[in-house]
User: Fold these one by one.
Assistant:
Number 1:
Amino acid sequence: MNHYFIGIKVPNRVALTLSQWQQHIKPYVSYRGWVHELDFHLTLKFLGPVSEQSVAQLEEYLQDITVPQFDISINGLSYFGKKEQPRVLFAKVQLVEPLSDLKEKVEKAAAALNFDQDKRSYKPHITLAKKWKDKTVLSTSLNNKINDPINHFRVEEFQLFKIHPQNEPKYEIVKTFTLKETGE
């Protein structure tokens, strides 16, 4: 079975800037995997292995989600894991109410089809690199290495993605869902 997730594809202009950020910080970090520019996204829900039948059902539930379009801001870099050798390096995304509402509605849609619920609090982010690769230690602040600010971008839609782990880019958009207000 293929693995899937629900997320927000990053607009091309933002992806280009994030790719430039990667180039600026590569000399200062030691990661095995760098996210491809076409794979930048904001995860709403990781699903794991999903049958084709469940994908079709999930698409119906996701189609009914009503959340108005909204803006989100990217606020520099952060990481998951130890400060000296962070597991994941990411661009921080501000958690605004419409994003929180969208996340909650995606969780409810997934729960209706018996997908596991996320137990951790939601920390929106866009992964730039993963898997620290050696014993070197991060010894500098990376935020002062990026000089192209990304103030915000408009979220008008979200996507269901299929994961192709051996490919580059790895993520295929299966279906796009336009954000809409109740009654549209």
Number 2:
Amino acid sequence: SAAGILQSRDKLRASQILARNRIPIPRTMNVRDVRDVEHAIEAVGGLPVVVKVTKGTQGQGVFLRHTAYEAKSLVQGLLHARRDVLIQEYVAESHGRDVRVIVVGDEVVAAMRRRARGREFRSNFHLNGTVESVDLPEEFADVARRAARVLGLNVAGVDLLEGNDGPMVLEVNSSPGLQGIEMASGVNVAGAIVDHAIREAGYGDVEIDGLLRMLPDEGVATLQVRRHPGLIGRTLKEVFHGEIETFAIARNSHMMWNPEPLTRLRFDDVVLCTGPRTSLRNSVRSAVERCSDPSDEHPLDPGPDEAEV
């Protein structure tokens, strides 16, 4: 859901929800004053600690600090820049590695282990980390499914640390990258996501073998026309102004691949768009806003089946 996406992108809010639902996470403290740093370090188990901002993706805004002085200096700078800051337990046994699990609906569709290179402790694929296939234990799969469920996400990339006492949720991503996990697992994750979106929209079986293979940093967004009355009857050209590539429309249990720009949208259509993952969601929202109808109570609410992946 839209609320789930917002919750997952705020690391503090997500941590609170996960902890409240007894899903294991590293000990975490929110720091609003540099004078609270030493107390926070003690509360999460001592040095070293992970310092992170509450909003950031692909490993950005995440730091490992080995002394209280280093942690204080970093926190002071982040607070001065008006960033919300977390101090988190460092799980030494999982240093430089984690397990990424893709959950679609209530099903685990793919998983991989990520490893950092050299002295880097962040294992993100975009930070030159390596990926490999993993035989996912059921305990890890169960934690991943529960994390996605309590955050209200139909599509989620759940990052798990391999702690001595079992899996711990490090982060839950509402728009996970696909290149690394498709490479490591051999699973067509994009196809699984599109298939789920179409099933949830009430369509029958459709052929999706023609689904485009994902390019680095590319994403897919699904848009249900029925949720946005202002789109009905408009052409793709009128809606997107040629700024977003529409590679398919799900209509009457069939897929219309590469629809013409002058194709008019119908009430039950599900539009599938592709573009740069970092900007695709905002581009789709802008297009919907331009065409919003006064009768559309939530013109910018993407709905439970509309997600960037």
Number 3:
Amino acid sequence: VADVGIDDDFFDRGGHSLSAVRLLSRVRSVLGAEISIRTFFENPTVAGLAVASARAAGARRPLVPAERPSRLPLSYAQQRLWFLHNLEGPSATYNIPVTLRLTGHLDRAALRQALTDVVVRHESLRTLFAEDGSGARQVVLPAEHARPQLKEEETPVGELDARIRAVASYAFDLRSELPVKAWLFDTPDGVRTLTLVVHHIAGDGWSMGPLARDLSHAYAARSRGGAPAWEALPVQYADYTLWQREILGSEDDPESEVSRQLAYWSTTLAELPEELELPTDRPRPPSQSHEGDRVAFEVPASLHAALADLARTTRTSLFMVLQAALATLLHRLGAGTDIPIGTPVAGRTDTVVEDLVGFFVNTLVLRTDTSGDPGFTDLLARVRETDLGAYAHQDLPFERLVEVLSPTRSLARHPLFQVLLGLDNNQEALDVLRLPGLTVDVRAPETGRAKFDLAFFLEETYGPDGTPTGLHGAVEFSTDLFDRSTATALAARLLRLLGSVTDDPHRPLGDLDVMTDDELAALERRNRTAHATPPRFVPELVEERAADVPHATAVISETVTLSYGELNARANRLAHHLAARGVGAEDVVVIALPRSADMITGLLAALKTGAAYLTLDVKAPEQRLRAVLDDCRPAVVLTDTAHR
């Protein structure tokens, strides 16, 4: 961004939560100052940041290469994946697949060597996992023993998608094989398709950026007959693993960082609902299969811009707006007023790990309170407080939080939350991939797996000038619980709700629009009951029926049945009698009779005179009947001996 002044607002100039965390990481490294995300949200200018830096405490110990112990422990995040890997067995649930469609001249030998270069550069990609009586440990293979597999296949065009889905679902044996694999498919049309699959225990979404950069650099060098001349990485993932444990400290020390953050989360998530009530299509099975599917949706550029404007005017972030909207949707669909939503955070709070492939991402539980039917902007204020507190305590591994809070363990659901929201504003992650002589089309194949009941993923896109150009969205859903049509409807409801909050952000949650176009159309059809009414009075219609079908049944009561001819004749006689008593237009005829043929005769007779009629409930108390009569002042009261 050009021409930034010391008083320009970071968020007004396109900043977001992720870029704010990266900025504070650089402040920590360069200035040695520890500034919280809350402080930065409250002082989002260069001038404000300078003041906050001067007042800030000293930064924590930086991440540097560490002496390797004989047993290299797993990071906290790896521990949970290792536990699930052993519990459920090898599966594709935690695979990260990327497919590259390559058009042009491919140097296969250079590609094979470049893959090896990348695996050698990043220790996490050449790490195996072992377990003995002392627990699980990482085993980093020597560089000369790290040779990733690149399998080449000739595949018919019609079978390519199925083969990609199959390899994207490859089940890694983490004890004996590298956590990365590659397949190269050749189709008769001359196109090559490279599919890379990385197990989540060795990388995360952010890692795809460094991986793509390094693969590009290595392929370019190898295709020229050389080797990549890159600088050595400042640290490796094993260094982070050891540093993480040192920084967090011991839980036996009440002054340690881990104790401080545990205290915060224990209070914040006390009495958290164990399971959200979601609009499922089927009962929850005793054990999750993790079978899943995805439906895609698009947030248009105009709505993207409006949501970004709403975030700026409310001093929040786009993620907070999306979180508030999702919580509102779940609340409106019956999930209650205490809505826990999970979200991934990059976890790269030190600049030296920004270019590293590894599993740094952590998961936060954001508890959203929708009680009291607040306006949407009021809900946003609550969300802002919740999220800033969570960001300030994001170092505590989710895995440890689960252990400490100890929710009722169940194979049927994810602990602490069942709905996840992810916003990817790291647009350039795979855009950096450049392979000389090739046009590269990057795609993310589906694995057919789902980690949660529901996961809403959105990816921001921007034009060259920073103008919002829309959000790519997807709803990932467990097929144990949901049909595809339900997930599609959820996406449509969320879009409708987002439009509603930008139209009027102060509306109470209960008044926001969450109905889909199809539901609105169905509701309109269901209520389309109006029909043309003949421009004639009831007496005329009865006269017409009496003339056309005089013997047809008109009235059936307990004591008598009248035809149209009989009803019309009786009403005419009574109408003449009423007219003789001066009853006509502007008069009221009270009918104090039980439901009977006589009551119908009286109604029709009154109408024939041009008067209005008023029926009384003959079982009502006498005082109430007298009050009605005094109020309407009838010309005549029609009754019988029993009710006089």
Number 4:
Amino acid sequence: MRVDGQMFNSVTFKSGVRQGCLLSPLLFALCADVLLKEVDKLLSGHEVVKAFADDTACVVADYAVTLPALSRLFAEFEAISALSLNIKKTVFIPLRRQSCNKNVQALIREICPAWRDMHVSSSGKYFGFIIGPGAKLSSWDKPLNKYALRAELWSSFKLGLTLNAVAHRVFIASVLSYVMQLEADPADLQIKFEFALRRLAPGPGNWIALADLTHLCSCFHFH
């Protein structure tokens, strides 16, 4: 092994690479590249594998056939490399129907016992983006509820009308910024926009002036 121009004796790794080892990223990349090439060979048709560092996503069409095959491949790789898949951090997301998660979980336990503890969910994160059929629900309800609760808290302070209006404008701008970052051009943005306005103006009456609504709508080309 050559490090910084100097030759060293060979090193045998018995349990992966050591924490903090300067060679760890390179060695992991070399091992992962071999695994990803084998996974790519196993997949066919519209099935693909995407990976960056240790974040990997496989899109499979017939999971009843592909999951057991992937499980066998990973078991073989783990035996050779001493690296292992953390199944507790692995999420299976059915893209067609999200109402059958329990059935999918039961089927996975039957056809793929090695991955029986794999979590089945209607949404999940990949590179910070929420994906899956339930992504829209999980992406919108949480932030809107969060902003609505904050707005209600601010209104309970009995601040002046002007300051309350300013506060709500800030909330609206924050939500719209979140919307545009999450989805560049959502088809139902105007519906979400109007919903956000209603949620962010709690209390008696609407504290956001009509001029503010007109200005914000014009900024996003809503008529």
